[in-house]
Amino acid sequence: MVLYYTGTGNSEYVAKKIGEQAKDEVVNLFEKIKGHDYSEIHSTRPVVFVYPTYAWQMPRILRDFILRTSFTGSKCAYFIATCGDSMGNMPKYLKQLCEQKKFTYMGCAEVVMPENYIAVFNAPERNQAVKIIRNADIVIENIADVIKHNGTIPEKKVGAFAKASSGIINTLFYPLVVSAKKFYATDACIGCGKCVDVCPSNNVSLKDGKPVWGNQCTHCMACICKCPKEAIEYGNRSKGKPRYQCPL
Q: pLDDT confidence of 197, banded at 50, 70, 90?
């Protein structure tokens, strides 16, 4: 069973590709996470978690969901991390998660996809995004083949920077960077509520027809990138930047 969490569609694309090639069921975890639904998930086949990389680790919102949810059936677990560059030393922390959940760790693979974290970086224009995704297709195909044959994803050597990125940098990233305080709606906002619907942490609500943000933001960029009027900004960091949604 392929279980995915996504903000702007990269991980959904990868999950569906893996499911198609490995002939496996694909499940979007969005409603479960948003609805705090920790009911049992049963799979007779290995569980494949597909998700974006947040500061060189699995998103905490997904990790918390996994820890609270009961998984029955197969205890083998694969992890597929989409990223703009590198997943860092993520496997170290996934092994710890597997120990807690009594999973058999089958490995973690990274898939480089278009950057979407426009609170800090620039997202590519459509043509460049498509090129990046097409380059990722062969990587996805190889991962799916390993999963289909119950193989183990090989380990990658990691250096000092990767270790620091997934360690101390990730630890500092959440309290120092992850905040919704800079989000605001411009006059282009039509009060459609799309931002409310796409927020996995229920951090956005409408007040007098305009979105307001709370303090549970996970920086998935769904609200700003999926706004149909591009009426959401993140301080001055997002101004003039293309919004990103997986184009394929």
A: very high
Residue indicated by tokens 């190889």: 142
CA distance linking residue 138 with residue 144, whole number of Å = 10
Q: Which amino acid is at 16?
A: K
Confidence of residue 199 (pLDDT cuts 50, 70, 90): very high
Burial degree of 30 (CB within 10 A; 0-12, 13-18, 19+): middle
Q: Sorting pLDDT into bands at 50, 70 and 90, what band is 231?
A: very high
3-state SS assignment for residue 56: coil
Residue 153 confidence (pLDDT)? 97
Which phi-psi region, left, alpha or beta, contains residue 10 (left: φ > 0; alpha: ψ -120 to 50)? alpha
Q: What is the DSSP letter of 242?
A: P
Residue with tokens 């009060």: 191
**Helix, coil or strand: residue 44:** coil
Mean pLDDT of 213-225: 97
Burial 145-158 (b: 16+ CB within 10 A, else e): ebbeeeeebeeeeb
Query: pLDDT tier at 146 (50, 70, 90 boundaries)?
Result: very high
Instruction: Report all structural domains of the chain as residue ranges with CATH numbers, in order of start.
Output: 2-174 (3.40.50), 183-234 (3.30.70.20)
